[in-house]
């Protein structure tokens, strides 16, 4: 089975990216044919500085490798190394109804937050569909916010098949129940573009400051608190085992524990959890050639598959020289 997922190099990865998506990438790489890519074409809708985008892309690769992505098991590549994906995007665009894209939350949410919407942001789900369909992907591990885009991908594959005959595979999404929507410091979905993230590899001092800034209600120290409606508790759950979670929940409900103490517990648990990955990241960063080689080899493998599927698509709709 082909597993595929992409992640944008729009900034350094955060706890939401890890627990919603990257953790799944790593869990799935052992047993499935895994393709993971750094979505630099998507990031171009946000980042308009060449050096920055290049650097972010390398940082993204380093982060993924440090977190446990194994290039011997999974294919890791840069989206823009596979030009076939933009050809497929155009083909899909010609069968995409405007109303389908107008319904998409990512676009609607960003627009509502005042982030300027260009055609790139609006058509982002079509590029995403091409990313998935180009490699005959069966399963796409993502956070909750991307499930709708996988539905769009399924719709487009089905529509293409209806118009041109059975050509594209309809993929399924995969989310984790416990971490499909990790909250940020403001309690909303943690998202690079919302300025509410806690980065995985931030310095401990900066990370502590962010954790301490998590928004909570104004309950006094002695008041009982509700673990089910608290971003601090939700984040603690990501790092703690069941017994630790139950213990903190009891203390919340009993009152007498302040949010400051709970935040400190989150901070310490996170440092412990990502401790080894931090060390690995430093080692990897000292050897940039290896990362470049991994991305080049990944691109070679991904492109081979991508060409095969694009040929099939072009043949189905009468494009190109393929019979
Ligand atoms: P941007 O704000 O630039 O869109 P992002 O933080 O949303 O960045 P993406 O690159 O869009 O990150 O998403 C990468 C993966 O991480 C996707 O599978 C997405 O569903 C997942 N993800 C992002 N934020 C969260 C979150 N808060 N909780 C769970 N999963 C998340
Ligand atoms: Mg996003």
Automatic annotation (TrEMBL):
A motif ('HIGH' region) lies at residues 9-17. One of its GO terms (molecular function) is tryptophan-tRNA ligase activity. Coiled coil: none annotated. Its main location: cytoplasm. Homodimer. Catalyzes the attachment of tryptophan to tRNA(Trp). This is Tryptophan--tRNA ligase. The gene is trpS.
């Amino acid at each position: 089975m082909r597993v595929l997922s992409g992640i944008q190099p729009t900034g350094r990865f955060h706890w939401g990216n890890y627990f919603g998506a990257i953790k799944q990438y790593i869990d799935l790489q052992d047993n499935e044919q895994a393709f993971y890519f750094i979505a630099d074409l998507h990031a171009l809708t946000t980042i308009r500085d060449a050096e920055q985008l290049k650097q972010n892309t390398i940082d993204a690769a380093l982060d993924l490798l440090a977190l446990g992505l194994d290039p011997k098991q999974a294919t890791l590549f840069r989206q823009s190394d596979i030009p076939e994906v933009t050809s497929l995007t155009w083909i899909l665009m010609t069968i995409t109804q405007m109303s389908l894209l107008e319904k998409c939350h990512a676009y609607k949410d960003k627009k509502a937050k005042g982030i300027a919407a260009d055609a790139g942001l609006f058509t982002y789900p079509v590029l995403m569909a091409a990313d998935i369909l180009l490699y005959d992907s069966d399963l796409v591990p993502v956070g909750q916010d991307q499930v709708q885009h996988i539905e769009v991908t399924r719709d487009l594959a089905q529509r293409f098949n209806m118009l041109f005959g059975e050509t594209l595979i309809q993929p399924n999404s995969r989310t984790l129940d416990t971490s499909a929507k990790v909250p940020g410091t403001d309690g909303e979905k943690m998202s690079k573009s919302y300025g509410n993230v806690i980065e995985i590899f931030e310095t401990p001092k900066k990370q502590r400051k962010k954790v301490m800034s998590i928004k909570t209600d104004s309950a006094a120290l002695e008041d009982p608190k509700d673990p089910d409606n608290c971003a601090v508790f939700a984040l603690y759950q990501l790092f703690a085992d069941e017994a630790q979670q139950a213990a903190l929940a009891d203390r919340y409900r009993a009152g007498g524990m302040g949010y400051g103490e709970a935040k400190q517990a989150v901070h310490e648990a996170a440092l412990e959890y990502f401790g080894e990955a931090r060390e690995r990241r430093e080692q990897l960063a000292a050897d940039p050639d290896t990362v470049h080689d991994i991305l080049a080899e990944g691109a070679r493998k991904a492109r081979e598959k991508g060409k095969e599927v694009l040929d099939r698509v072009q043949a189905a709709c009468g494009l190109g020289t393929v019979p």
